[in-house]
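Morning!

This is the sequence you dropped in the shared folder:
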Amino acid sequence: MTKATFSVLGADLRVKGDIDASADLHIDGRVEGDVSCTNLVQGESGEIVGAIKAESARLSGTVRGTIAVRDLVVLKSARIHGDVHYDSLTIEQGAQVDGRFAPRSATDATVVSLAAS
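The structure's back. Tokens below.
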């Protein structure tokens, strides 16, 4: 059995390419690519240009791409440009979303669970 880890991408870091983490991920920098992980925390300075797939996500930065998560929290500083697929959703007053919200289908849930494994 492997011990769960927590990885951090600092505000000074820019990544071009997809990220596939089997652990929790905290992003304060810029990612140009798809992000797949178990639990995602995005800081206010974080920017993700690509799709997000995770079990849970707490977003407070900028996202340009689709989001597919089980439990999603969108904080007031978040700026989302893309469609959002979720099971559970919390949005703070002041958050900006330019896209559509839709509950995930059973097929989407399976894909996200497999991607996060």
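Headline: The radius of gyration is 13 Å.

More detail when I'm at my desk.
O.
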